[in-house]
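Note on ligand handling. Small-molecule inputs were canonicalized before submission; formal charges were left as drawn, and no protonation-state enumeration was performed. Where a ligand contained multiple stereocentres, the stereochemistry in the source SMILES was retained. For LWAPGFLV, this procedure yielded the string shown in the input block below.
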Amino acid sequence: MVHGRVSRLSVHDVRFPTSLGGHGSDAMHTDPDYSAAYVVLETDAEDGLKGYGITFTLGRGTEVVVCAVNALAPHVLNKDLGDIVGDFRGFYRQLTSDGQLRWIFYRLQTTGEELNLQIGPEKGVVHLATAAVLNAVWDLWAKQEGKPLWKLLVDMDPRTLVSCIDFRYITDVLTEEEACEILRQSQVGKKEREEQMLAHGYPAYTTSCAWLGYPDATLKQLCSEALKDGWTRFKVKVGADLQDDIRRCRLVRNMIGPEKTLMMDANQRWDVPEAVEWMTKLAEFKPLWIEEPTSPDDILGHAAISKALAPLGIGVATGEQCHNRVIFKQLLQAKALKFLQIDSCRLGSVNENLSVLLMAKKFEIPVCPHAGGVGLCELVQHLIIFDFISVSASLQDRMCEYVDHLHEHFKYPVLIREAAYLPPKDAGYSTEMKEDSVKRHRYPDGEVWKKLLSAQGN
Ligand SMILES: C[C@H](O)[C@@H](O)CC(=O)C(=O)O
Ligand SMILES: [Mg+2]
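Structure output:
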């Protein structure tokens, strides 16, 4: 039974200096410091359990999200956890519909600069903050039930599951009744699929070999190590310089051979015609997909690229920066993507991701989650394992991203075996970081940053 009143919400700005090694770099984010706005929820319950929630950010962006989490705190504090999850749809809507927060541009005074930031509705900073808070609620709920989050979801009856979803703005493609029906139909074979997951895990691909900032020698070395470790699917960053892309893609394709799967990711670098032209030149390396070829807001642009690249056998993948379920709905309606990439922190937590998984099922589009960042692998594995067991019932054309960074900072790190995610066994959403890691990486007063900042003369 869920219990306790939320007595404290704290939020930490935790950053890892990944940009120093070029880890995580792409054509648009050339110096990413993998970071998180890290939320801790405490209750007055005697069990002493805490809920941990993160949202993924890049360095300086974190302080902005931290402000937004604090702005949302009054919605959570002093609430009864039973009341929150008992009407999760209502609570989700309360957080995402704060009449004062959803409207405005937010003016933030940081170190001498003034930033104007759009924070709503259901997009941008406030939505990332919503995800951090709700992820903490889901973590706490799963912990109180003594189950890993994926299992909490798998064991929930369809009616309870859909009661967590806000169907506002999507009923033209998915009603609550239809969602329930999808879940009911997928009850068949659930037990066998759960056993399959526990025995073999969920198939993964790696992005860790080919960040854009890596020199060719690193790329080669990481590729050959990944091959030895049994990886068969690889993603390469592209989009900044065509000649570089040709050289790097050739190098990777030569190393992995013609049979293994290659994906490319441009991180929104191109205009629509440029995307088509560029990918036509990279087609010889046989990519399965081009990810984020253009602005995440350009639904019709994605549709045009999809149509143009289909004859070359290249699909369009996108989602890691899709604001919300409405954008996903339209991408699906417009046949703008062949692979849908949910993100555990970009959307409004499990609640909104459930709606996207169900829409993807209805449109028969495979979900291949985004996980490049700190903690995203830990979180999204729960969603995709649930998706397989309770929604999609298929592994056809599906795989979950894996990046080999920063797992050592988590109390319950992902377990990868033979290029597959093994289902987590510990209770919760795998969101909890090690206390010492948080302390050392807190910005700007953690030991790691104090040293770095003083070396830079700050
Ligand atoms: C900035 C991030 O590392 C981004 O490049 C991740 C990404 O696009 C992916 O993993 O896909
Ligand atoms: Mg990407």
